[in-house]
Amino acid sequence: MVVRSAMGPAVAPQIRALAAELDRTHPVFGIKTMNEVIYNSTDIERFYTAQLVGFAAMALLLASVGIYGVMSYVVGRKRREIGIRMALGASHGSVLRDVLGQGLKLALLGLAIGLAGSFALTKSIASYLFGVSRSIR
Questions:
Q1: Phi and psi based region of residue 92 (left: phi greater than 0; alpha: psi -120 to 50; beta: remaining)
Q2: Which of 51, 70, 87, 105 is deepest in the core (most CB within 10 A)?
Q3: How is residue 133 annotated by DSSP?
Q4: Residue 73 in contact with residue 102, Cβ under 8 Å?
Q5: Please, which contacts does 30-36 make with residues 24 or more away whose CB atoms are closer than 8 Å?
Q6: What is the DSSP letter of 123?
Q7: Cα 53 to chain center, whole Å?
Q8: Sign of dihedral through CA atoms 84, 86, 90, 96?
Q9: Is the pTM of the predicted complex or chain greater than 0.70?
Q10: Handedness of CA 66, 69, 73, 75 (dihedral sign)
Q11: What is the DSSP letter of 131?
């Protein structure tokens, strides 16, 4: 049963009394406002969204640690070269540009591989998602 009232949840005792007058054998329970009903109806979607956000945050953390590790390894391997270049008069800017340029190349390579993989797997992934199209707008 749905009751529209400007009183909100305060009307619950009156509804119970009216229902008891009509038929005492049918108890009235679970009285909720429409906002509660709508909020409760989206529980599973909120749960899945929270899970997705958690996994996305974990993926971002792992990707950040991975990028840091690769860059640390690349710079560690080039430490001797960087030292020689600095001793021969290379500026801090040129060394930094070289290291960041190499990191950017790696990032672009990873991006290209990731995009190619995502486009290749789009059709198979789309079959698992209901009501989601493959088109990019």
A1: alpha
A2: 70
A3: -
A4: no
A5: 33/8, 33/9
A6: H
A7: 3
A8: positive
A9: no
A10: positive
A11: T
